[in-house]
Protein 1
Amino acid sequence: MLQKFNAANRDILISINGKLVHRDAAAISPFDSSVQGGDAVWEGLRVYSGRIFRLIAHLDRLRSSALALAFAQIPSHDSIRAAIRETLAANNMRDSVHIRLTLTRGVKVTSGMDPRLNQSGPTLIVLAEHKAPVYDTSGLSLITSSVRRFAPDMLDPKIHHCNLIQSILAKIEANAAGADDAVMLDSRGFVAETNATHLFAVDVHGRLLTPQCLACPEGITRQVVLDLCAANGIAVDVRDLSLTEFYRAREVFCTGTMGELAPVTTLDGRAIGDGTPGAMTAKLAALFREVVAREAEAI
């Protein structure tokens, strides 16, 4: 699964601290904390017909992550919304748009890891692109990575930070194996998530299974799926899950803002179920689209 350049994005304007600049001229300082140490937080947003799905939930998570990292300054929800609105309007974007929202601690007076060196900040980047959901809905192939997710006492995954080296290393392994993405285990050997998405399985009894959020972020799309199950009488078991439980599942699918709901048909060379997308995945994907159409929020 390799994303391709979309010519529609050739001349997009990017917002950096409220200033709109062409993608070729967009830049941040080499003294910015994101460059110095990945000291930044981020969110992925998706635009549907001029509205954003779960915008407030994403902004709340951004703020929560910045608070956990002790950012001295955090923009208000209203100011971030204004920057998003201006960016979308400047690019004439209304649908099939993905936004990468990044908030860094800001610019340092000299290089170094000490946050006290950040005396100018924060830096807010709004990068909006024409981008439909990126995953192949005919079925994904996954392998299990040798790279483990951190436990909460190592680096709490509830902080949605920009230091993504773990995920990149896992993705390198997936690429080398010819797979779309990689499953990542926690420090105890239980399934956490993939390098980019949350995971669900459907067991032989038709019950939905998903790992606890102990070594993975609190997923917004994941929570929508759990809410849909509660509203539609679908049994869900949220607990520690081993790879074997995914190998023997009837269905597996992943969730995330970038790709919505996407079926997994192969894991570590094993066909999942009959090797084709399953009925539960299709049902939940349809319910998800209904929720998006009904609840996407005005910017």
Note: The radius of gyration is 19 Å.
Protein 2
Amino acid sequence: MDTSNLYVDHLAWCGLIALNLARRAGTVSSSAQENLFLCRWLATAEKKRLFRRELANDIRWLLKEGREKGLRADLPGKLEYLWRASSGDLLEQNDLFRLQHIIHAISLTGINYGILTESEWEGRRAVKLSPKVPGLFIRKFDLDKGFDEKGAQVNVLGVRITAEISAVDSLLSRAGWFRMMDANTPFLHWLIAANGSMK
């Protein structure tokens, strides 16, 4: 685990503990109150510089998300993702679980996500993708045939990505996945679990 991940792990852990203590005390009892509590907590952390300066951008981003998106920001979900991805716990899960975690994280960032049927994937009725609309779309056939009964990847997954590649790579890397670009087809990439469980 690299040092920057350790710092994010600490920030996320502290945020989740503070939220759970507030729930137990009865001061937080709804999603709206959770968002407000975490926004105040993050604002205090930023103002008083409670965390290492390496986390300043993460704190600002989380605070901006909470303030601008409100409940849609799902700050508890973002903190949970950061904690799992940074603590190493996530990498101990099977390939399918880690992919589901990536998809959840992608949806939290505001990137469009979808599963495309064969007719939506290619042919006359194929979904038209625009580089101006950030998205990640998985081929349903590959998803159905991509994993064994234990959640281990057995086939590569075709995806079409119009989102910023570096952002997607960062999410994939934290969850033990990587992608390979298909040079012959625009937006087409192949997802592969990095732990080598694919047969």
Note: Residues 93-193 form one domain.
Protein 3
Amino acid sequence: MSNDLAILDSGLPDYLKSLNVDATTKALMGGSGASQSKRISIKGGVWRLMINGKEVAQNEDRHMNVVIVAASPKVSRTYYAQQYQEGGDVSAPDCWSADGEVPDAKAASPQSKRCVDCPQNVQGSGQGNSRACRYSQRLAVVLANDIGGDVFQLTLPATSIFGEGSAGKWPLQAYAKMLGSKGIPVTAVITEMRFDTNSATPKINFKAIGFLENAQHELAIRQGETDSAKRAITMTVAEADGAKPKAIAAPKPEAPKAEAKPEPTPEPVKRVSKKVEEADAAKPDLSKILADWDD
């Protein structure tokens, strides 16, 4: 009887080499294979591979070459009531917004009905002159030397998103605008991500260093349509790391209103008409009449 491992290890058919494990296989694999979340962290200015919230590898090179296969359509926002503590457990944010406009329905403690009116969106609400609510944008990326491999989530801070930049040192939005102005899709190029050594906090600059071949570009597009890519651009870092969501505070019940006591009904007062008063005044004094009768 032939060994199935021998058959499978003998080499994949050409059409399978560019495919990933499908949803049916993942469902049958159970929890370990279906729910694995992989992301790249830039904490401390070091590339860190995180799997289900656990750091499994580091790359201390100043740059990393990737292909961006998907991106969240809008810049998101995240607010933590407590300041980050080194070594602390990853926790879900108190409030966040996927579209940067309104709090997410799952947010435990929404700070405002609209992000634009939120007190945490005011300069000075955070440390120094910063905003307590932070901007970020999520990407789904694959390694340039393994386009058909794992899809990673990469969450970028505001310093890596906004700004003008310059050739070879673009923040994300300026980089995309530069490519778009030339009619080049970001999914068709190899992108170098490099740490800005002049920044006190982790900041990434972007640069295009080469084009993908046609087959590679088609593979990158397919990678951007996978469940892994969709999760990468929709899940918060806390969700990707498996942090338990904070309980949504129940609305405070309104204090029962005291029932208004009915005012006592005043006793009816008999009103005497003016004519009756005049008639009573005209009546003779009976006591005087009786006194006269005694004489």
Note: The longest strand covers residues 133-143.
